[in-house]
Amino acid sequence: MKSFNQSCIFVCTKKGGCGACGAKKLVKGLKKLVKSEGLQKEYKVIESGCLGYCSREIATVTFPENLIFTRLSKKDAYRLLTKLETMKKYREIPELPKKNEATHSRVVNLLSH
Question: Domains plus CATH for the chain?
Answer without folding.
Answer: 7-96 (3.40.30.10)
